[in-house]
Design brief:
With 753 residues, this protein is an alpha/beta fold. Among the domains are: 109 residues, no CATH class; 102 residues, no CATH class. Strands 5, 11, 12, 15 and 16 form a 5-stranded mixed beta sheet that branches. It has a 5-stranded mixed beta sheet with strand order 6-7-8-18-17. Helix 2 runs parallel beside helix 8. It is globular.
């Protein structure tokens, strides 16, 4: 029902009805959020879990309900949620008797009041509710909007595997006993213990399935796989893992019940087990690969295109030699499981073995779009400065979702705000007037036509940016506070540093480093527009501000000559310092303005992320014509990459431009690069050398798609023949033919080298 990939999805809302009853009963009986949560977890699991599928080597399939308990949209929803449009569709279109339809009516009414999402929106602080008045950025021309979610948990899987469920149950009981003696919150710990016992029951539930399936297995190999699966499930229900299979099985069960979308440093929590089992003849290389392939397929089944990171490599691992051996298996699984998930990520450095690098390059050359490449030699020092942490902690940085940074099971920095910098520029040009909705919005501004200098206009634009940045920071802290009051998120809390010692759940004071991130969109188009305003209006005086506004009003119809002048102004991505320097200075100012909010609102850090996904297209839909020559509604540039087709001086010039922005004052910036198959395969050594040179000169990150421009054209014309064509959109990969047509066009329009 939420696009989870399962063989026989549920087709009615009986679970949703039962879950709603369980929640109602719980809130009448309990006041502690952990008690309410435990009751709802018991209603949710194993009810939303699905049977073992034929290709599964580890057990666990899930289909979140249209009502339930999640942590962000891709886990069903945020907190206690309802997917209102789809429940409404079921009411209007699906069959069912009168009582069933009455229950669905009841769901809609009840959750309209009681969903966590609606509670957050209703209770926004007075200081920002008129500034961030809507989160409907998909359909409304908003300069900024909140995003209601708690995205990006990275759990301590090492602790989970070391203690196992029995060890964690024992730990929770010990903390509960201590809290009773000291007057602490023993209820939280007791409910954690109950949640872990529920997970043990789920393991037994899957164990019985595996045993039954083994009895009717079609081949001896499949029977052996199922018998090993059943034994692993039996063992982890009552013992700590004692093999790679048991460790992986426990991580996966915990992940889908948490529910999680990030699966961490796999080589760190599995590397030692892999080496132990291989070196002692417990498993073969083929069996190890099959386990990881199954893991990857099941992560893909979560169908969360902007999440589901699996990370290998880099500084800070406990046992790099063992981890690197696991990396090679993971890279082969990435190459052979041709799905859009997981977002397989390589953190590399000068010590990365050539074999690991070569295995990862092989994946990229074959068109996998993975791994995503992160340069630790650049990023670790930058993370230290941006987050104000020491090197030991910086080495645990984890890219999540579309590319934001967190620290492994230590920090939480949900990207819960969106800033459309190009829309804000449009407002600044027009004095705060928004032409699409015909309204005045934001702070009152002096329009461009009344400005006497470029510097004066730039100051006005920055003031408007600050207005929205300050509101977003306040909203970010508010979201944490109200979430902490409503939710314990026990499975997440138990594997986060500081929570068990503090006796407080992760968002109720338990997280040691509670941070925030603000997503930026449109910065490159802003920079190109500012260059045009500066050059044509104030320096060369070839265009008047009045004519520019009129041309924008007309979407450049009848203004071909003026638009050509705008398009001819230097564009970011061509190694031209005139415009590139504007980018660097504006990006630095935005990042520093955002980071200065952390202390004001009480967060450990609050940082910008320039990690565009498809929102560069969606948000661009609601921005009128702009001074860079872009027409109304057209996509904005993706992240800090050049605007589509504007990088005309070749790949070296483009890479030179994207090397100029700093990486020590934000929490993530995406660099996409598209190479033709011919370029990479016929000139492999030269192309690889270009990539390595980019990283040696300070490149922090690359997401590489290897695909021919002709392939994209053919896929748009004959999608049935290109079902397996995968491309990098921005902070996500996708099957090209499944993207919306406007997103397909934006990707096609990008430069291919």
């Amino acid at each position: 029902m939420n696009n989870f990939k399962v063989e026989h999805p549920r087709t009615d809302l009986s679970f949703e009805i039962a879950f709603t009853k369980a929640y109602r009963d719980a809130v009448k009986k309990y006041t502690h959020p952990a008690q309410i949560e435990l009751a709802c977890l018991r209603a949710q699991y194993p009810a939303i879990l699905h049977p073992i599928q034929d290709e599964d080597v580890i057990a666990g399939r899930v289909q979140a309900g249209l009502v339930g308990l999640g942590i962000q949209g891709q886990t069903g929803g945020y907190g206690y949620y309802i997917d209102e449009p789809r429940v409404t569709e079921a009411l209007e279109q699906a069959s069912g008797n009168a009582r069933y339809r009455e229950d669905i009516h009841d769901l809609l009414i009840f959750w309209k009041t009681n969903s966590s999402y609606n509670k957050v929106l209703r209770n926004a602080p007075d200081s920002v509710k008129d500034i961030l008045f809507s989160d409907n950025w998909k359909e409304t021309p908003l300069p900024a909007s909140p995003i209601i979610r708690m995205a990006g948990a990275y759990l301590d899987f090492d602790k989970l595997i070391c203690l196992g469920l029995p060890g964690m149950i024992k730990e929770a009981q010990e903390y509960a006993d201590r809290a009773k003696e000291n007057g602490g919150d023993y209820i939280l710990y007791e409910c954690m213990k109950g949640a872990l016992e529920l997970m043990s029951e789920v393991c037994v539930w899957y164990q019985k399935q595996a045993e039954e399936l083994a009895g009717t297995a079609p081949t001896p190999k499949r029977r052996t796989q199922l018998e090993k699966m059943a034994a692993a499930l039996s063992n982890i229900s009552c013992k700590a893992p004692a093999s790679m299979l048991e460790a992986l099985q426990l991580v996966w069960i915990y992940g889908i019940m948490a529910p999680l979308l990030q699966f961490g440093r796999m080589d760190e929590y599995l590397g030692d087990w892999y080496v132990h089992d291989i070196d002692n003849g417990i498993i073969t290389e083929e069996e190890a690969l099959e386990m990881i392939q199954s893991y990857f397929r099941q992560i893909d089944s979560l169908d969360s295109e902007t999440d589901c990171r699996v990370i290998v490599g880099g500084y800070g691992r406990r046992n790099p030699e063992n981890a690197d051996r696991l990396c090679l298996v993971a890279a082969e699984a990435c190459r052979t499981v041709r799905e859009i998930l997981p977002q397989f990520t390589l953190r590399f450095n000068k010590e990365t073995p050539k074999a690991v690098w070569d295995a990862c390059m092989k994946c990229i050359v074959e068109g996998r779009t993975f791994p995503l490449l992160y340069n630790d030699d650049v990023l670790v020092p930058c993370v230290m400065k941006a987050f104000h942490v020491d090197r030991k902690l910086a080495e645990t940085y984890m890219p999540l979702g579309c590319g934001e940074f967190e620290f492994d099971h230590y920090s939480f920095g949900t990207p819960s705000g969106s800033l459309n910098t190009l829309k804000i520029l449009e407002l600044a040009i027009r004095g705060g007037y928004e032409p699409i909705m015909d309204w005045k919005i934001g702070s009152k501004l002096k329009p461009l036509e009344e400005c006497e200098s470029f510097e004066q206009f730039l100051d006005i634009y920055k003031a408007n940016l600050r207005y929205y940045i300050e509101a977003q920071a306040i909203y970010e802290k508010y979201e944490y506070e109200i979430t902490g009051k409503m939710h314990s998120f026990m499975y997440v809390s138990m594997l986060y540093d500081g929570v068990m010692d503090s006796g407080r759940s992760i968002f109720d004071g338990g997280c040691r480093y509670l941070a925030g991130t603000l997503e930026l969109y449109g910065v490159v188009n802003v920079v190109n527009s500012l260059a045009a305003i500066r050059k044509l209006i104030f320096e060369e005086k070839k265009v008047s501000a009045s004519d520019l506004r009129k041309a924008m009003d007309d979407n450049f119809y009848g203004w071909d000559s003026l638009r050509k002048q705008l398009l001819d102004v230097p564009k970011y991505g061509n190694d031209n310092d005139y415009v590139d320097q504007i980018f660097v200075e504006l990006q630095d100012w935005i990042c520093e303005t955002i980071s200065s909010q952390a202390k004001k609102v009480g967060l450990s850090s609050y940082l910008a992320v320039n990690i565009n996904n498809k929102q560069n297209t969606t948000l661009g839909r609601w921005v009128g014509a702009t001074p860079d020559g872009r027409k109304a509604g057209m996509p904005m540039a993706n992240a800090n990459n050049p605007s589509s087709g504007s990088d005309t001086n070749g790949i070296t010039a483009m890479l030179n431009s994207i090397l100029k922005p700093h990486h020590d004052n934000h929490a993530g910036m995406v660099q996409n690069l598209r190479l033709s198959r011919e370029t990479f395969t016929s000139n492999y050594e030269k192309t690889e050398g270009l990539i390595k040179n980019y990283f040696e000169r300070g490149g922090a990150h690359l997401m590489i798609t290897v695909v021919g421009r002709e392939d994209l054209k053919n896929a748009m014309e004959r999608p049935e023949d290109y079902q397996d064509l995968i491309v990098r959109v921005g902070g996500l990969s996708a099957r090209f033919v499944q993207l919306n047509k406007d997103v397909q066009q934006e990707i096609y329009d990008r430069t291919t080298y």
